[in-house]
Amino acid sequence: MDLLTQVVREAPVPLWVIDHQGLVSLANKAAIRFLGYRGEDDVVGGPSHDLLHCRRPDGSPYPEHECPIVGSGGSALASEWFVTRSGDARPVQWTTRSMGSRLGTLLSFSPQPRAQTQMVRDLRSRGPAPRTPAVQVRGELRGSMLRTIEARFTDPEFTTAELAAGAHLSVRSVQAIFAEAGTSPAAEIRRARLEHARTLLAQGSAVQTACLASGFQDPGTFSRAFRQRYGVSPSQVPALSV
Questions:
Q1: Which secondary structure element, helix H or strand E, spans residue 6, and what is its range?
Q2: DSSP label at 130?
Q3: Residue 209 and which of 30, 145, 172, 235 are 20 to 30 A apart at CA?
Q4: Does domain 134-239 have CATH number 1.10.10.60?
């Protein structure tokens, strides 16, 4: 670990580095604590705008192209609000500074307690929102990833890591998003494959054909997973009412 990285990670001021694709490449302990995440794995590799404030405090969308932070490319200073992992809106003052063409942009921020008090009053005057911004965003991300799973599960190389890469999130972040719904990305990929295989088998496909066409590479693994889910072996499917 180089000296600069160590200094950033241990600094008392919340800091993180945004690369040229708008992704978080480094986040220090103070920033992670302020935003309510558990560790670097929850944010590093994820889209900076989404992790900071993809929704405004009232729940309305905040498009990335309107964000003054991502892509600022130089020095800037402004007041803004960030949304924590639990959905709390926190007003902050932030600054950015270019770290050169190779490293990207360094973002630092600090809370504004007075502004936060006024924001809470404003939000309360509008009445309670049915869902917090962060919860809504994670639900939308989960829905988008479920659609990706349905489109790609037949690819035997498609894994949780591939799903996370396509969503520009870390594997742990993706797992946390699915855990909120009581499932996991791996379980959803396996569910899609097994349901497809069951349909093929009911239509008369051979076990080997259904196995490979559904994204399974090993017949033994397929048979065990199928029996665990449906209580019968794949060869017994035609006898089931579908």
A1: helix 3-10
A2: S
A3: 145
A4: yes
The answer regarding whether domain 3-127 maps to CATH 3.30.450.20 reads yes
How far out from the chain centre does Cα 190 lie? 20
pLDDT by residue (tens digit) across 91-105?
Answer: 888 888 887 767 788
Query: Do 3-127 and 134-239 show the same overall fold?
Result: no
The one-letter amino acid code at 105 reads: T
Question: What confidence tens digit (pLDDT) does each residue in 162-183 have?
Answer: 998 888 778 888 888 898 888 9
d(CA 167, CA 178): 13
Residues comprising the chain, all counted: 242
Per the CB < 8 A criterion, the answer to whether 211 and 222 are in contact is: yes
pLDDT band at 55 (very low <50, low <70, confident <90, very high): confident
Which neighbouring-strand residues pair with 110? 93
Q: At 124, which helix (H) or strand (E)?
A: helix 113-125
| C-beta separation of 214 from 154 below 8 A | yes
What SS3 state is found at 162?
helix
Q: Cα separation of 100 and 89, whole Å?
A: 31
Give phi and psi for 232, each to the nearest 5.
Answer: -140, 165
Domain locations along the chain: 3-127, 134-239
| Residue whose entry in the numeric block shows the structure tokens 């270019």 | 98
